[in-house]
Design goal:
Blueprint (H helix, E strand, L loop, with lengths): L20 H12 L5 H29 L4 H4 L14 H9 L2 H32 L5 H13 L6 H10 L6 H5 L6 H12 L3 H9 L4 H9 L4 H17 L2 H6 L8 H11 L6 H31 L5
Length: 309
């Protein structure tokens, strides 16, 4: 005869067994859809989610599916959501009309270099404002808050004159240079660093650690969610940046992907070209979605860290 060990549920406070998680979820669901709670559940829960899905997700899904449709399935009196005769011709047309590899490479360089420098500057600036006695630190932080409120379009004319005078017109560094500071990243990381336990840094200081070691061996490792959040926002902004590269770049071989694909709007002026425009929009959007999928688990944690002490 084989001995069988019976595992009894762990008693909760008060001596009763804690409910199984699945049973608890079923109970919560039954409670939410009880007649007395049904109206609140629909109006406060499901209805906002459905509205958000219709407003945000449906256009994105329509864009992706339309990029695989021939022109006759887009310009029609009875459109269907799914393509009836899927085709990759729209993507081929984009590659034929735009120097795709060139503009894609330019976007990758601008995004990687620009976002990398921005995140590094945000981390070091936020650390200095919190852990180094910088003269006028409060005034510097006030200036960062003011920068958050100023639209970037206000600085485009002085930036254009400055970059042009430095010889940065039609260059990739001319795209990167004016946006190297990130007020949002500095603000978010400063608030996060202020919430870190001071004992960690005091112990490291007693151990002889300097600011460089405290930054890269203590502050950065425990701040990965917050730094990933800043990196994600910065990467999205750099990748989608359109107005400044459009102003500073004239040469097609230096254009970034959003600006290069804007040429499709000028080349394809007929209604039958909607599928080609949709394919170009998908090429801009999909890389950002992939990056977001890779970093999304850090976003909520990064945005909430430092909010409560």
């Amino acid at each position: 005869m084989t001995d069988r060990t019976v595992v009894s549920p762990v008693p909760a406070a008060g001596g009763t067994a804690a409910p199984h998680p699945r049973r608890r979820r079923t109970s919560d669901l039954a409670k939410a859809f009880a007649p007395r709670n049904l109206t609140d559940t629909i109006l406060a829960g499901y209805l906002p989610i459905l509205i958000a899905l219709v407003i945000i997700v449906l256009p994105l899904v329509w864009m992706i599916l339309s990029s695989f449709k021939p022109a006759g399935e887009i310009v029609t009196l009875s459109p269907a959501l799914l393509p009836q005769d899927p085709t990759l011709d729209n993507y081929g047309a984009v590659a034929a009309r735009v120097p795709l590899l060139t503009v894609l490479g330019n976007s990758v360089v601008v995004t990687v270099v620009g976002a990398g420098i921005k995140v590094l500057l945000a981390v070091t600036t936020a650390y200095a404002l919190v852990f180094i006695r910088v003269p006028g630190a409060n005034l510097i932080f006030l200036g960062i808050l003011v920068a958050l409120m100023v639209p970037p379009e206000v600085s485009m004319l002085p930036n254009y004159l400055t970059v042009t005078a430095l010889g940065g017109r039609n260059t990739l560094w001319g795209i990167i240079l004016p946006g190297l500071g990130t007020a949002f990243g500095t603000f978010l990381l400063r608030q996060h660093f202020k919430a870190l336990p001071k004992e960690l840094f005091e112990a490291a200081e007693l151990d002889g650690a300097g600011h460089g070691r405290k930054l890269f061996q203590i502050a950065v490792p425990v701040s990965v969610p917050a730094i990933a959040t800043v990196a994600l926002v910065t990467i999205v902004n750099e990748w989608n940046n359109f107005l400044w590269p459009l102003i500073i770049i004239d040469s097609p071989d230096k254009m970034t992907l959003p600006v290069g694909l804007n040429l499709l709007q000028s080349i394809e002026s007929q209604t039958g070209s909607y599928g080609i425009l949709m394919a170009g929009a998908v090429m801009v959007t999909v890389p950002v979605l992939v990056i977001f999928a890779a970093l999304q688990r850090y976003v909520v944690a990064g945005l909430t860290q430092g909010a409560v002490k």
